[in-house]
Amino acid sequence: MKALIVDDEPDIREELGEFVEQLGLSVALASNGEEALGKYFGDPEISIILSDLMMPGLNGLEMLDSINDAPESRQRVRRVIFMTANGNTQSVIRAMHLGAKEFLLKPVDLDQLERHIVSAMREVAADQARQTEEILLKQQVTLNSAEISALNRDVEEAYAEALACLAAAAEHKDPETGQHIIRIGRYAAVLAAELEKDKQWCDMIRLAAPLHDVGKVGMRDAVLLKEGPLDDDELLHMREHPETGYRILSGSAHPTMKMAARIARCHHERWDGTGYPRGLKGSEIPVEAAITTLVDVYDALRSKRPYKPAFSHEKVMDIILNGDGRTESQHFNPEVLAAFESAQSRMAAIFDQLGDDREFATQAGSLKREVL
């Protein structure tokens, strides 16, 4: 902490400087307003200014006005004490508006000056301590925010990994589907974006859609892996997997898991009401399930199965748009179908990039990399 003494009379300046030094402050001296500005801005330690009000050239008020206008001094702690040989009311009022705290009449009463200087030192110390505390608090808030962000990323990554492992567990019950679960998430996110869903929603369905068949973990292997046609009892058992998946996933309050539960339950429903397990129709089917239904059919038709060869993209689009007796366009949400047709080149690119003929690591590891 340092004091700046400003007075155009050398004897007064020197006497005041010596007195203030005795109070424990370092002192800088200036003979006019211009010199005072140079010393103030050149020395960040100066926080108390004791200045004559009326001086040749730049007077005390003009000096203080220049200090206040300078951007580098706006956050700087300071106390200003003016000395004046007359009690001009207008000058005093203007000085107060500019931030001056105290006024002393010349000749200066040293006892009164001591009280003002000591009071200014206490105020400056308190303001500097408060300013330091605010800086430390802001730094701590920034640090806490960074730690929270890092923690949230860790939680989201762990959650995504758990979803990936859960989806892969279901697919291991049905190994013929290869990289199906990875592609489903990618297709669904692209189609959601085509439908102008926001990024958060697209990210959610990218994680949720691969869980559409998680209910398969509850199916008997003899039914799930049977190569021939299913009998009535087996068909009934197979059609239980949407509700099984819903029961597995619906216990969570996490938005992504809740979406996954709706998808698992409704991805075999059809727009015309001919689907299962509940025969939902039209807008009764959640749009996320309608998206997954369509991309699931697309991927199944593109993939090789024991009962069918892999179809080309062009043939699959013809089946989806025009029907083949088993798959019909009226099975799909019309808005979703139109968006799918618009985005079909991106769907084909996903299958080409992640086709079953490519070599991948374990399904859980592959899906983990995909969702993260």
Number of strands: 5
Rg, please? 39 Å
Main beta sheet? 5 strands, parallel
The second-level CATH architecture of the largest domain is: Orthogonal Bundle
Side-by-side strand order of the widest sheet: 2-1-3-4-5
Helical content (DSSP H or I, runs of 4+): 55-70%
CATH homologous superfamily of the largest domain, by name? Hypothetical protein af1432
**Number of structural units classed as domains:** 2
CATH topology of the largest domain: Hypothetical protein af1432
Tally the helices: what do you get?
16
What is the string of helix and strand elements? EHEHEHEHEHHHHHHHHHHHH
For the record, give the distance between the C-alpha atoms at the N and C termini, rounded to a whole number.
Answer: 54 Å
Helix and strand content put the structural class at alpha/beta
- Spans where pLDDT lies below 50 across 5 or more residues: 358-372
Q: Oligomer, anyone?
A: single chain
The CATH class of the largest domain is identified as Mainly Alpha
Give the overall shape, derived from the CA principal axes: rod-shaped
Mean pLDDT: 83
The proportion of residues in beta strands is: 5-15%
What attributes characterize this protein structure?
372 residues, alpha/beta, Rossmann fold, Hypothetical protein af1432, 5-stranded parallel beta sheet, disordered C terminus
Protein topology:
Layout: E1 2-6, H1 10-22, E2 26-30, H2 33-42, E3 46-52, H3 60-69, E4 79-84, H4 89-97, E5 102-105, H5 110-172, H6 180-194, H7 199-208, H8 221-224, H9 232-238, H10 241-249, H11 255-266, H12 287-302, H13 313-322, H14 334-342, H15 344-353, H16 363-371
Parallel strand pairs: 1-2, 1-3, 3-4, 4-5
Helix pairs in contact: 2-3, 5-16, 6-7, 6-12, 6-15, 7-11, 10-11, 11-12, 12-13
